[in-house]
Design brief:
Immunoglobulin-like; Serine Threonine Protein Phosphatase 5, Tetratricopeptide repeat; 4 domains; 24 strands
């Protein structure tokens, strides 16, 4: 709200939205003003039609010879409108249930009318839909303005009965008017300061609850009304009549059993009054028995079951027993009506609970156990070519004195810190290491966590080796979103080799010449990488089989059952079958049944291909799921993955582990925990719209994502978290091609108030760059340290100021689209 008390544009627009299909009825001064404006507007339109000039095609001579039809006499003026009160509306359904003033007492409702006066009949009948909508907007804006003007008088807040009455009328028209709800909150708090009698306080609270009930009768899914009711109860100003609250819920849920606001409020009430969750679980069963299409009841059941299983309440100790009963329940619903989606979504939740371990587990790390790192592990053979030492791995970030350590969990977790992830080594590094989640959002949960060892004694005169030990004991601090803790201790060790700083390997420039991904002369293949190590940190197969035996048996029974589903063209059945197969494949990946696992993935790919044709409206979702299955299939074992891997060596340079996943129609990247060792990655000629997941590849030096569907720099934010990235090929994407690109605002930006003002904007303004146009490019290039960039073929590259932005913010950039600029 502005300082002068007038509503802002946003508030005016918000207040003008009404869920009522008929024109709202207003009372008092608002009715008279809007009716007068409407009458004035209709009279102006009548005069304009009378004075309408002849058409441009007519001439004076022609009009003079043409017989002019007789003009009809003007209609008689309307009867003068009396100043009496407008007639009462016959529809009193929304207000007739209000208690009499003697029952409710005095309070914030004072000054409100209990009827809904309507506009004069002659104005309603002649107005079309557009005119009625204009009258509605005028009424809402007028009411909001009157409230606002009464709210601020000479800088002092006022809460009069007239303003409270206006706020009630406004909320009766449009329950989504947040300004009116906030005004009533402040008014109630102000008026209660003057009351000490408990009965008077209770009367005021009850009156406010009745206002909420009226708003809910107008719109049972009003966010503002439900929030206001929760706020009233949370104030604990008076005893709560829970019988009345549950009665209101029963009435609303009878009208719409899937009103998620009502179910959310029921959970709030149950927690507020301490109702046992077992009782609420039985209530969901009753509602499902009435109508198994009640999605809200299934959803509430999943929430209650999760809490009961985590707390191990009485009767809920055995996860296998509970989920077996739930599977039987939902299968009855699915086979009764395979086209209803409520049961399918609940089945998906059951599937997720069955196919994943109960506790978060570390499934991959970099460096892997037993790895040996060095800056440039090279030696000269007889041909004077630099080749890789088979016993060590090139770590390019060592050139800058940094060793990234990456931990990858099967579920997003939070709480990693130096106290629960212990590092021991015989070389000097900062003891106050901070573990940070490698994730775009700021939720604090992430599958991937990283820290960075800064080596202080890297310039040693002789070759030395240092050992680093990483241990993660069982810790209650490392916790998943479901509240489960990491209870599987892990310990691994790796070695860092530091050589003589006068060695010529330190003088090798990897980017002396630009890297050409399409040229075979840029790199020479030297066989397959010997440093790949899968499943170094996985739990043993015996433990997996013991924990997963019931899960696998249950999923196998489900697969056999859904194969016999009569509706073969049901998209839900095909999607569920694909998910069941992938769940079995995930369990098999923790064991040793590789051949059977590949069969599951192959069949799931077929289902997703069918779904793309069967349900084109969700084509992108199916393409993403298909890409994940394909990534899983290509990286699941050494023999298959090695077909796409090689060791690449530039002339007189270091060895780099290279993976080429081109022309596979990938739309999404997954299973990056298996590629933490990759240093060159070629993902060109796919259909990638996002590169989320690549932030885990902290060893990545060169990346090629040309000829994809990247549409903005904000979708490249994962690359800003890779400290070793030096070469990036973005050519022939769609950056800047869309005039309105909503993906630009999905990530951190100055407009979302997540990024503070930085010097990069000031530097670009000094060079006459339109910061508002290139803000996403500025934020990206200030966060990366590239040596080579290829961006030709994108619309943004043709803009005059773009090269200025890149060269200003990337002082280390040497090659731009194959041209040396520094």
């Amino acid at each position: 709200m502005c300082k002068n008390g007038l509503p802002t544009v946003g508030e005016t627009l918000l207040c003008s939205r009404s869920n009522s299909p008929r024109p709202p009825a207003v009372t008092g001064e608002a009715t008279r003003c809007t009716a007068s404006l409407a009458g004035r507007s209709s009279r102006r339109m009548t005069r304009r039609r009378r004075r309408r000039p002849p058409s441009s095609g007519s001439s004076r001579s022609r009009s003079s010879t043409t017989t002019t039809p007789a003009r009809k006499p003007p209609p008689p003026p309307p009867a003068p409108r009396s100043r009496a009160r407008p007639s009462l509306s016959r529809d009193r359904t929304l207000t007739s249930r209000l208690p009499h003033r003697s029952e409710g007492g005095s309070g914030p409702l004072v000054g409100c009318c209990r009827f809904r006066p309507s506009f004069p009949r002659h104005q309603h009948e002649g107005a079309n839909a557009a005119e009625r909508y204009k009258i509605q907007i005028l009424a809402v804006v007028l009411s909001t303005t009157m409230i606002s003007q009464d709210f601020w008088v000479s800088g002092v807040c006022r809460y009069t009965e007239e303003a409270l009455g206006l706020s009630f009328k406004l909320l009766e028209i449009n329950p989504e008017a947040y300004t009116a709800w906030n005004y009533r909150k402040l008014a109630l708090q102000h008026n209660l300061k003057e009351l000490s009698d408990p009965e008077a306080i209770k009367s005021s609270v009850d009156a406010e609850l009745r206002v909420v009930e009226l708003a809910l009768r107008q719109n049972p899914k009003s966010y503002g009304a439900w929030y206001h009711r929760k706020w009233l109860l949370n104030q604990k100003l008076a005893p709560v009549d829970f019988k009345r609250e549950y009665g209101l819920l029963d009435k609303l849920l009878k009208v719409d059993a899937r009103n998620f606001h009502g179910w959310n409020y029921r959970r709030f009430l149950a927690k507020f009054m301490g109702v046992p969750e077992e009782k609420e679980l039985q209530y969901t069963m009753d509602k499902i028995s009435e109508n198994f299409s009640n999605y809200s009841a299934w959803h509430n059941r999943s929430i209650l079951l999760s809490n009961l299983l985590i707390q191990r309440s009485e009767g809920f100790e055995s996860k296998e027993k509970i989920f077996s009963e739930e599977f039987e329940l939902v299968i009855q619903a699915l086979f009764t009506d395979p086209g209803d989606q409520s049961g399918w979504f609940y089945h998906l939740w059951l599937l997720a609970q069955t196919s994943t371990p109960d506790n978060p587990q570390l499934i991959s790390s970099w460096p892997s156990n037993g790895a040996k790192l060095s800056l440039f592990p090279t030696r000269k053979n007889g041909d004077q070519n630099m080749v890789s030492s088979p016993s060590s791995i090139c770590c390019y970030s060592l050139k800058e004195g940094i060793i990234p350590i990456v931990l990858y969990f099967n579920d997003p977790v939070k709480g990693l810190n130096p106290s629960n992830v212990k590092l021991n080594s015989d070389f000097v590094f900062d003891k106050d290491l901070q573990w940070r989640p490698l994730v775009i959002t700021d939720s604090g949960y992430s599958n991937c966590w990283a820290t960075y060892l800064e080596i202080r004694n890297k310039d040693c005169s002789t070759s030395q080796q240092f050992s680093v030990e990483v241990s993660i004991p069982c810790s209650d601090d490392i916790m998943s979103r479901s509240g489960s803790h990491c209870n599987c201790p892990v310990h691994f060790t790796f070695t860092v080799e530091l050589g003589n700083n006068n060695d010529e390997a330190h003088d090798i420039d990897l980017f002396h010449d630009p890297i050409s991904w399409s040229s075979s002369e840029s790199f020479q293949s030297h066989g397959k990488p010997s440093c790949v190590a899968f499943d170094q940190l996985n739990i043993t197969s015996a433990l997996v089989q013991e924990e997963s035996r019931w899960n696998l048996d249950r999923l196998s029974d489900e697969i056999d059952l859904f194969r016999d589903l009569p509706d073969e063209n049901s998209k839900f059945a095909k999607l569920t079958l694909a998910r069941l197969l992938l769940a079995c494949a995930a369990i098999k990946s923790r064991g040793s049944s590789l051949i059977e696992r590949k069969g599951y993935c192959e069949e799931a790919l077929g289902f997703f291909s069918d779904l793309i044709n069967l349900d084109p409206s969700h084509k992108r979702y199916y393409e993403d799921e298909r890409s994940l299955v394909l990534m899983d299939q290509l990286t699941c074992d050494m023999e298959t993955f090695m077909k796409y891997c090689s060791v690449q060596v530039r002339s007189n340079s270091a060895t780099l582990n290279h993976v080429q996943l081109c022309r596979l129609s990938l739309t999404r990247i997954g299973f990056t925990e298996r590629m933490l060792w990759v240093q060159m990655l070629d993902l060109s000629h796919n259909k990638l719209r996002s590169i989320e997941g690549l932030e885990a590849l902290q060893q990545l030096v060169c990346l090629n994502i040309s000829n994809n569907q990247i549409s903005s720099f904000t979708s490249l934010e994962p690359l800003t978290k890779i400290v070793s990235l030096k070469a990036l090929d973005l050519s022939f994407n769609e950056i800047g091609a869309h005039p309105i690109d909503t993906t630009r605002y999905m990530c951190s930006s100055p407009f979302s108030h997540k990024v503070e003002r930085c010097e990069a904007f000031v530097e670009c303004r000094k060079k006459s760059v339109n910061v508002e146009e290139f803000w996403d490019a500025i934020l990206f290039f200030k966060s990366v340290n590239l040596v080579q960039l290829d961006i030709k073929g994108n619309a943004v590259a043709d803009k005059d100021s773009f090269v200025t932005v890149v060269t200003t913010l990337s002082p280390s950039l040497k090659w731009l689209d194959g041209t040396c600029i520094h």
